[in-house]
Amino acid sequence: MSIPKSAGPNNTAQGEAIKAIPLRHPWRNVIAVVLVLLLALFVVDAAQRPDYGWPEVGKYIFDKRISQAAWVTLSLTVYSMIGAITLGLLIAIMRLSPNPVLNGVAWLYLWIFRGTPVYVQLVFWGIVALIYPVFTIGIPFMDPWITFDNTIFTNLFVTAIIGLALNEAAYMSEIVRAGLLSVDEGQEEAATALAMSWTQTMRFVVVPQAMKIIIPPTGNEVISMLKTTSLVAAIPLSIDLYGVSRGISAVTFTPVPLLIVASLWYLLFTSVLMVGQYFIEKRFSRGSGRRAESSTPDPTPPEIPSPGALPGTVPAPLGNEPGGKG
Amino acid sequence: MTEEPMVRADRVSKSFGSNMVLRSISLEVQRGEVLCMVGPSGSGKSTFLRCINHLEKIDAGRLFVEGELVGYRQKGEKLLELKPKEASLQRRDIGMVFQRFNLFPHMTALENISQAPMRVKGLPKAKAVARAMELMERVGLGDKADHYPAHLSGGQQQRVAIARALAMDPKLMLFDEPTSALDPELVGEVLDVMKGLARSGMTMIVVTHEMGFAREVADSLVFMDGGVIVESGDPREMLANPKEARTQSFLSKVL
Ligand SMILES: Nc1ncnc2c1ncn2[C@@H]1O[C@H](COP(=O)(O)OP(=O)(O)OP(=O)(O)O)[C@@H](O)[C@H]1O
Ligand SMILES: [Mg+2]
Q1: Residue pair A206/A180 in contact by the 8 Å Cβ criterion
Q2: Distance between CA atoms of residues A63 and A52, nearest Å
Q3: Which of A16, A271, A279, B242 is the most exposed place for a label (fewest CB within 10 A)?
Q4: Residue A247: helix, strand or coil by DSSP?
Q5: Are B108 and B148 spatial neighbours (Cβ–Cβ below 8 Å)?
Q6: Residue B139 burial (CB < 10 Å; 0-12/13-18/19+)?
Q7: Where does residue A316 fall: left (phi above 0), alpha (psi -120 to 50 degrees), or beta otherwise?
């Protein structure tokens, strides 16, 4: 048996370099050119139409009322997402618990809040203060011990946060649950065998690994929430970005420019969120593959084991993603 | 004998639903002894190991580690289930190594090893890291401390897993087919670490199909099939002349 000399691992004589003509994609270019032309046509046309009211757009984009409303929208998003993630985590853990009572309660919650439209829920929370004007503590059907006014649901900003958070928690819980389920069972077992408690196992071993699965869809949920806040009109709360821009246009009779103003602010926020999401995702993919590493000095290439020998590192299958928003 | 054995199983049984996986298992492991367990797939070897550190509950019989009932407390006639905290206290002294390593992929090798001593024993970080480094040297991976598991070969991962278990200073080590997921050329390095451990006097229960290891290192050998101990005894003698027909047919397949 003879081995060609050039087949040795350390040979310096290279084979002939490949100088091929790359595959051409003529149709791609044609379609791209057509699309660019159409877009240019639309922009030029839109710039000339008076209905778009570009001078008004310029006038209102940095209007004090608009920027304050943008701040309200951002606050609604942040507070309701904090509420939703906290409650969602709780419901996810309840759903995974072996206790049938907790499990049943979590299931019921999901059934109701995912099964009805968020708009309807917000309308409902808006009239809760009328249905329950006072809260009482005491034995049912007897004289109450303590009575206090329902001040929570008369504050429409708080009502909006509660309404949005309760709805979103149902979706977040499914995302968290999929994340927790994606972590290999062996991880929990190894941590338990090391005498770590259940809480420690969750906090230091399971949840950090689940984060990788949880964060991308959560980023989507934040972006989606930013836009869902426009539905607080159902409560009715009208101090958010959409509410205020509608309020202004009702007076000035210039709906289109104010819609553009609101959209530009929404676009700004979602763009910032997308950048943030990128960095957070990078942070939580530590140790998840050969490519993801840049912080670790790794001068020598690792000995490559057979694929089957690395079970702990195979990306776990994604659990069922919840469907679109209700 | 005056001293309590490290592990004493007294007619231990365990079922999963209607599937009886362990049927009245009795055995003893003395301090410093290395016991190897062999048997066909599904014979209950893993389940038995998991019972020893109470990852599974047993249904019948009694299981003692260092004379202490595993997972329960005897109060007069009654058995009381241990609280999670008490069960975890028992697990501290038992290290376990898994077939699939189960390293924490989001931590470096060093963090994998120092994690439990810090979280469970409350060791200060500097001390835990120093000790982890020492253990990395001991398993021959001193230069790989900052590597994530994904950057290590199977053999290296399993050695880190052994170091991780040793970091809790266990009195007993359980190995569940530690080399079965490895490429043949990587098996040796893991077995070498285990041999060193055995020589240092560690009490070990090893489920393995490496008959060479059993012959060389084990003080006793147990052959399990269908949830019962079919045959047990001196490994060299048993491997050379198995008495039971089932042992003979199993050994003829793996040797
Ligand atoms: N958590 C569980 N639930 C239900 N059945 C189980 C569970 N764990 C193990 N079993 C069953 O118990 C039996 C013994 O399993 P065990 O893992 O102890 O066997 P083993 O001897 O370790 O086999 P192997 O060599 O394949 O690892 C098998 O029939 C298995 O299906
Ligand atoms: Mg097994």
Answers
A1: yes
A2: 18
A3: A16
A4: helix
A5: yes
A6: buried
A7: beta
Secondary structure letter of residue B18 according to DSSP: T
- Complex prediction ipTM: 0.94
CB of A306 closer than 8 Å to CB of B153: no
Count of positions (residues) in chain B: 255
Minimal C-alpha gap between B23 and chain A (Å): 24
pLDDT digits (tens, 9 = 90+) for A66-111: 999 999 999 999 999 999 999 999 999 888 877 899 999 999 999 9
Q: How many whole angstroms from its chain centre is CA B171? A: 11
CA distance B57 to chain A (A): 14
CB contact under 8 A, B84 and A197: yes
| Of residues A236, A254, A224, the one with CA closest to residue A324 | A224
Q: What angle do CA A224, A225, A228 make, to 5 degrees?
A: 90
Which DSSP helix (H) or strand (E) runs through B111?
Answer: helix B109-119
| 3-state helix vs strand vs coil in chain B, percent to 5 | 40, 25, 35
Q: Give CA–CA dist A193/B95, Å, rounded.
A: 7
Q: Hunting for tokens 């490519």 — which residue is that?
A: A291
- Residues B127, A183: Cα–Cα separation, whole Å: 30
Q: CA-CA distance, B115 to B107, in Å (whole number)?
A: 9
Say if pTM beats, i.e. exceeds, 0.80: no
